[in-house]
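Chain and backbone:
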Amino acid sequence: MSADGSFRFLPLPTEIHFGCGMVATLPDRLRALNCRKPLVVTDPGMRAAGTVDRIERLFTAVGIDFAVYDAVTADSGTGLIAEAALRAKEIGADVIVGLGGGSSLDTAKAVAAMVTNPGSILDYTGIDKLVHKPIPVVAIPTPAGTGSEVTFWSVFLDDRTRLKAAAGGVLLFPT
């Protein structure tokens, strides 16, 4: 473990940073990714709890231009993913920051994939079907649970069938 409380679990390509106050290092992590405009993907519960406000204050204090998409639902559907990806494209997001539980993090990964890949997330269900590398994802889990911050799966709801679907592969690991 390094002095800042970060370390890498091998063979995962995802760096894991943890510890009290670690979220304060988020601007430095984004700068290391050459991030110019992050989109925070989260849910209304994170907004109501004040967690989104904390991230917004942090970004504002250091001059990071950002946007927030805070409409994630439990088991986000394909339409919500398309809507959030459109928002990311409209603002020129170059990093997605997923904040919350498994649904927020899975949505963040799917949105990042859809910024660089054509069609619908349904076109990529299964494993290793993405054509282009997604933009980076910084995943900030708030509960202990799904482990979505270190997996290469994005689980979502197919709005047409109302069944869960998943897209996966090494390109979907959070950064």
About this structure: Strands lie at 6-8, 15-17, 38-41, 67-69, 95-100, 126-127, 137-141, 153-158, 163-168.
